[in-house]
Amino acid sequence: MAAPVFPTLVKPSMETLPESSPLRHMFPETFYPNGNYYSSPFGRVKYWILGPADGKKIVLIHGISTPSFGFKNVAPELVKNGFQVLLYDLYARGYSEAPQVSYDPNLYITQLALLLQYIHWSNVNVVGMSMGGAVAAAFSAMFPHLVDEGVVFLAAAGMMVLPKPKQIQNQDPVAALNAQSTIDVTNQIRDLQTANLPGYQEAITSSLKGGIITGVHWAYETLGKTTDKRFLIFHGTADPTVPYGEALKIKELIPQAELVSITGAGHALVIEEGVWEDMTKKIITFFA
Asked: Could you name the domain of life of the organism this protein comes from (predicted)?
């Protein structure tokens, strides 16, 4: 057995790209104010802290393919309403480096736990989008002491049944998961990351195989036994990426959760016009 490598080998992030690159033009490092990095055992992690220091703390966790850019509408609204918001890029996305390890639930939840320790936040309210919803569930189940009042799941994954390998061969795994996405800007950022970040596609493939999309049933079941936290589920009835039935699975395991079914909405709830506005208001009320 080969000796483990320490520190973990990583592949570069958007930080190493020229500032004139199309990807950095679409999502510059200063897209949000107050950005910084911390060095984890698995590479450098980019994060931003927005809003008043005395505001209720919320972390926003993005999905499998688009970095924290996706919260460009939601985050400012939370700040306007007095919340302090933490955004960060998951490993191998955006400005966070890509460790050469398995992208399983343990990697994702320890990334956030270490980040909270680094910025000296004792606990936080958690909002997760798509795969980020699965991260939110796994994190909250494993580290309940780090969760303040509750968790919000936005089109959350975690218990999906993906197509068998022979059914998706010769396809981009992200395209297979996001086959019907109609949000052009997120598709552009996804495609530019694929072209420019050497660890990005590997991380996507590993995430699809590593259990974060399909294997966090235990986390949702554990949260269903929780009595000191509150849970809110948002899901579009026309979601082609994480089907609406996934929300029903979560609701079944967390019966005390409130389910908000958004009729006709697709997957990109955080940027879909006519959807994100009302959803954000409900999140604000939930944590008020």
From this structure: Eukaryota
